[in-house]
């Protein structure tokens, strides 16, 4: 579990050019970000490059991060997502910006086992699961995702809301259990 | 309040988190979030959701990614620190260049000064030599003239040359005759003055007298009774043209 204070300390050191602070953030967040990137691009080697690029961007742009506007992870996630989406555009100049047709074709291929979603998402109903997967793990915008699912935009948005509500509920239950186990061990 | 309902209903916060909103919408949401605690709490929940599901679905990247990241950052830092000595070296090179240029111009100036000094020295030396020669000449003349054995004689012009005047210096002891012809009027190019000694009725040539010299040395003739000046064709004559006698003086 993360503690916000440690993050702010790492970020302060990072702003002063301390590379070890970046490696600290890498140790903490690289797996979460890699999970997002590799599900978007489905290519291990490319995902590795994109993860590295993401952290180089974090290193160079840390001054632009404003803690008042949100968590560090959200900011880093946005960088990872945009870096990955931009790499699709760069791959083929014929693809207009915002046109993810090639990417969508790829997304229709069966998903490898190791990329299947885990955790509390698994407990959601399939359409809720898909809605979350599309926007958070596959780089879709709401507009693109509702077209992909073939439901009206309003319906899609309520899928997302309901899915998140469900997730929070199951998570709270888990947290209670975790806290209980933690207390027992301690 | 309408804004807030719209934001919640339209799922704008979810899209804000993804970074998929337009710049204007992002700015609007951010300014509303600053003043709306309830909406900010909603955002915090959404951020926590994203982080949680990301962590639940985390996939450990291979170790080489971190190593590659580290080497990329070290490299970029090596490049960064390299600028300092490079800049210093460049500055030194520029300074050295400027210094050399300055020294070169100084050297060139010194060279020029030396040259002009040398020129002036040579010039002065020549003038000094000229002065010495002049002095020698003058002092020789003075010595020759200003001597107890010298008899100065003035030759006045006759009716042919009424304003003519020449001074002869005769030294019988050293057998020297000099004449200062400055007082004689200028002649046309094809004429010259010539001096003769009268020895027992016979005129003996002493030499031509050019008027552009200050002192002319002439031949000394023994037993001369008088000195005579005639006008003769340029280059001198063997015998005097007596009709053209300009002046004479008895010794």
Automatic annotation (TrEMBL), chain A:
Q: What GO molecular function annotation could you give as one example from this UniProt entry?
A: DNA binding
Residues making up the signal peptide according to the UniProt record: none
Task: Kindly list the biological process annotations in GO that this record carries.
Answer: DNA-templated transcription initiation
Question: Mind listing the UniProt keywords for this protein, alphabetically?
Answer: DNA-binding, Sigma factor, Transcription, Transcription regulation
> Pfam family of this protein, just one?
Sigma70_r4
Q: Does the keyword DNA-binding apply?
A: yes
Isomerase: present as a keyword of the record?
no
Ranges where the RNA polymerase sigma-70 region domain occurs: 25-91, 121-169
Supply the InterPro entries for this chain: RNA_pol_sigma-70-like (IPR039425), RNA_pol_sigma-70_dom (IPR014284), RNA_pol_sigma70_r2 (IPR007627), RNA_pol_sigma70_r4 (IPR007630), RNA_pol_sigma_r2 (IPR013325), RNA_pol_sigma_r3/r4-like (IPR013324), WH-like_DNA-bd_sf (IPR036388)
What family name appears in the similarity comment?
Answer: Belongs to the sigma-70 factor family. ECF subfamily.
Q: Quote the NCBIfam families the UniProt record gives.
A: sigma70-ECF (TIGR02937)
Q: What is this protein called?
A: RNA polymerase sigma-H factor
Q: Name the lineage.
A: Bacteria, Pseudomonadati, Bacteroidota, Flavobacteriia, Flavobacteriales
From TrEMBL, chain B:
Q: Does the keyword Transcription regulation apply?
A: no
| Record GO biological process | regulation of translation
So which domain of life are we looking at? Bacteria
Where are the coiled-coil regions?
A: 107-141
Membrane-crossing ranges are 83-104
InterPro entries, alphabetized: Anti-sigma-K/W_factor, RskA_C
Gene Ontology molecular function: sigma factor antagonist activity
GO CC term, one of those recorded: plasma membrane
Keywords from UniProt, A to Z, are:
Coiled coil, Membrane, Transmembrane, Transmembrane helix
- Magnesium listed as a keyword: no
Per UniProt, residues of the Anti-sigma K factor RskA C-terminal domain are 87-241
Official protein name in the record: Anti-sigma K factor RskA C-terminal domain-containing protein
Which organism is the protein's source?
A: Flagellimonas maritima
């Amino acid at each position: 579990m993360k503690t916000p204070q440690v993050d702010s300390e790492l970020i302060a050191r990072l702003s002063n050019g301390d590379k070890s602070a970046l490696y600290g953030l890498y140790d903490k967040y690289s797996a979460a970000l890699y999970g997002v990137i590799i599900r978007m691009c489905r290519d291990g080697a490319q995902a590795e490059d994109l993860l590295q690029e993401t952290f180089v961007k974090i290193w160079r742009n840390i001054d632009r991060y404003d803690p008042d506007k949100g968590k560090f992870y959200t900011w880093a996630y946005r960088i990872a997502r945009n870096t990955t989406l931009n790499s699709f555009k760069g791959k083929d100049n014929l693809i207009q910006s915002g046109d993810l047709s090639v990417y969508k074709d790829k997304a229709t291929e069966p998903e490898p086992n190791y990329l299947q979603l885990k955790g509390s998402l698994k407990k959601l109903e399939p359409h809720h699961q898909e809605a979350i997967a599309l926007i958070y793990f596959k780089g879709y915008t709401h507009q693109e995702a509702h077209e992909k699912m073939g439901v009206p935009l309003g319906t899609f948005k309520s899928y997302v809301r309901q899915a998140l509500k469900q997730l929070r509920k199951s998570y709270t239950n888990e947290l209670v259990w975790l806290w209980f186990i933690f207390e027992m061990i301690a | 309040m309408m804004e807030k309902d719209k934001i919640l209903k339209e799922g704008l916060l979810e899209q804000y988190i993804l970074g998929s909103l337009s710049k204007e919408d992002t700015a609007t949401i951010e300014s509303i979030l600053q003043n709306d605690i309830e909406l900010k709490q909603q955002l915090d929940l959404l951020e926590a959701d994203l982080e949680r599901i990301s962590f639940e679905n985390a996939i450990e990247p291979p170790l080489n990614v971190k190593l590659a990241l580290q080497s990329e950052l070290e490299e970029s830092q090596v490049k960064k620190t390299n600028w300092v000595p490079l800049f210093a070296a460049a500055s030194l090179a520029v300074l050295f260049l400027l210094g050399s240029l300055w020294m070169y111009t100084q050297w060139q100036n010194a060279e020029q000064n030396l040259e002009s000094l040398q020129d002036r020295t040579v010039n002065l030396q020549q003038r000094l030599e000229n002065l010495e020669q002049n002095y020698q000449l003058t002092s020789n003349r003075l010595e020759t003239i200003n001597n107890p054995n010298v008899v100065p004689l003035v030759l006045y012009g006759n009716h042919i040359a009424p304003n003519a005047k020449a001074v002869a210096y005769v030294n019988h002891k050293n057998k020297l005759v000099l004449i200062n012809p400055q007082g004689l009027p200028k002649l046309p190019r094809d004429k010259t003055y010539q001096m003769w000694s009268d020895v027992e009725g016979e005129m003996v040539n002493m030499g031509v007298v050019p008027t552009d010299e200050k002192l002319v040395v002439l031949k000394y003739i023994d037993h001369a009774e008088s000195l005579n000046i005639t006008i003769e064709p340029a280059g001198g004559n063997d015998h005097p043209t007596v009709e053209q006698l300009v002046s004479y003086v008895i010794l």
